[in-house]
Structure formats: structure tokens, C-alpha cells
Amino acid sequence: MFNSENFIAVDWGSSNLRIWVYQQNQCVWQHADQNGVLKHHPDAFKDTWLTLLSLCPQPLSKDTTVIMSGMVGSNIGWVDSHYLRCPTPLSALSQHLTAVEDAGPFPTFIVPGLQIAGPKTYNVMRGEETQLFGALTDERWYVFPGTHSKWVQVQEGIVCDFQTIMTGEFFHLLSHYSIVGKNAGEQNTNIQAFLDGAERGWNETCLSRSVFDLRARILSHSLPPDTLYESLSGLLIGHEIAQMLQHYAINTGEEVILVGNEELLNRYQSLFHHFGYRCRLCNGEKAFINGIRRLLHE
């Protein structure tokens, strides 16, 4: 039986780590750093975790439970918590938590990921399933903007399908390591450039063609160099939204729940509205904590 008042929620991803400590149902300490899974040797997780626990300024109840989610449960993490194959009810997450043996003074568990395993497509997620559980409503569609954006189809609490689009990673690679972003210089916020890029992305069937088009526009002096990032961001996000709305045949009357951080959510929301689609925002941190609470109560 888990204690739902004294718990530690841990979002341990590839690049970042976030911790929330709750005692008597109140958050008494938070911690965030960039000490992600990719920076760890498999044998170093326990030492890192015990060091982090020692930083907490509050005495912790002996009946505290630790629930971890994210890449910490992958095959390069602390303990492999495996995947639940979809379609699967989100309520099954609590039934398949993986215990971390000898993890310190408190019982520690890792949430499983979700998997699509053929026959036509293959996909995996880790971390978003916890946010999804916390954000769950009666709606069918959930989007998690980010490095690897997730589009998830849910029906009556069952995850039926999901897709991953590498929008954030493509933006980083193209803007920093490709000829498109070379000599970009100082960038400025420009809403119109973002919307213009989104229009091109919305209508484009060959994304790489439109990416190079941005470089050609700069060389032809038809696109100010300081708006490149805004144009590229709009192009990639606009293309993602167009392709996924078409893939899932989502109509303008259906509401899509966007889960994540405020800056990215605002960008996605502006394009949903620009193209005539409905959406509602859900704070990613609140969704994660709510997801952990639901896991503890199941």
C-alpha cells in the first residue's frame, strides 16, 4: 500500500532531472538540474540519488514512497521498467511498477513506458505516460510538444495509439548544425515570420524542400536573417500539426489537449487557433504530479 501523502515524484529524463518532495500532501522541496540519464554510468544512479536525497532540507517521514518516471526506467537507465504494449488502460501503469532494489531509505518504484509494436508501426514513450495519466479527461486527443513530440489517441482511459514527431530535435539540428542555420546571427522574436513559416509547413508535402527554401530566401534577401529561427520553428510545428491532424482525421469540432511548458504550448496553441482547430492547455508539471498521485491511489 502506497502512502499518497508522503511521496517523492521524480521525472528523470535523458537530459534533465526534476524532483518534488511531498510531506503531508504539501510540497516541501523541489530540485531541478541537467544531470540526466545520459550523463550516468549504470552503476552511478544509486550514489547520485542518495546525494540528491541528502540535499533535502526537510526531515522525511519513514513511510515516504518514491515514484520515478522517464528514461531512468529505460535500458540505459537505473532499472529497466519495460513497456506496456498498447492498447492498454492507463490504470495498468500502477499494476506494473518496477521496484528498485537497495535504492536507499525509501521504497522506490519506476513507472513503465508505453509501446506500439507493429505490425505496421513501432513507437515508444517514457515519461509522457505519467503526464497523460495526470492530464486525462474525457477528450480523445493529447499532444506533448517537445524534443520528440507525442500525439496520443485515448478512448475511455485506454491508450489506443500514439505517434512521435522529432520536431524539437530537428529544429536544434537544423538551426545549429546544418547549412540552413549557418551564420544565422542574432535572432529576434517575430510572430509574423512564425506564422508565415507555419503556412508553408501546413501546405508542404516535402518538408526538406521547404527547409532549404529558407536558406534560399535569406540569400535572395526576401527573408531577414534575424527571423530564421522563427520561420524554421513555424515551418516545423506547422508541418507537424498538419500531418498529425490529417493522420488521425481530427476535425475542427474536437478539442485537443496540449500538455507541456508554457512557451511551447503557446506556440502550438497559436497555430491550432490560426488554422481553425480547438485546443486546451495543460501545464506539464502539474500533469506529472497529478499522474504520480493517481498512481499512488490506484
From TrEMBL:
Keywords: Kinase, Transferase. GO terms for molecular function: 2-dehydro-3-deoxygalactonokinase activity. InterPro entries: DGOK (IPR007729), DGOK_C (IPR042257), DGOK_N (IPR042258). GO terms for biological process: D-galactonate catabolic process. This is 2-dehydro-3-deoxygalactonokinase. It comes from Citrobacter pasteurii.
